[in-house]
Amino acid sequence: MPARIRLQRHGKKNQPFYHIVVADGRAPRDGKFIEKLGTYNPLTNPATIELNFDSAVNWIKNGAQPSDTVRRILSYKGVLLRRHLQIGVEKGAISQEVADVRFNEWLQAKEAKINSKKSDVENEVRNTRKARLEAEKKANETKAAAVAAKRQAAAEAEAAAKAAAEAAENGEAPAAEAEEAPAEA
How far apart are CA 59 and CA 1, in angstroms? Predict the structure, then answer.
């Protein structure tokens, strides 16, 4: 069996973290490996990929077969494009300088795309925080208004009770009872 470039799972339950390794095709998924090429964390947005670029290109050149997921990761990082350009240089179709220029142009465009995605994610997080803060402020204002109304009603009731108590001490009938008394007579 040829060497395989594949993911080796690490991390806790529901929190995967992968090592990108070169292993014998017969070795178990998390078992013995030949070389660790990098790491892959799919939980971040965008996914965090750290890769030993030159070693990965060398393994692909020597015939190591990547798994489907690793093939996508290598393509995303430009390893497969670099190998493709190297094949063109070896066949004499293009010069090494032209291959380097093409790869650097692709790399700059890719970095710009990744940076724009990161900034979009940061802006989205900032906007959701801002919206939550506004909603929380509105909720706090409505609660404060309700508490103030409740306190005012309690203060008015207390003032009415004091007025009734003072009127009773002075021997006067409360205003509400005085109005009703002539109606009964």
Answer: 15
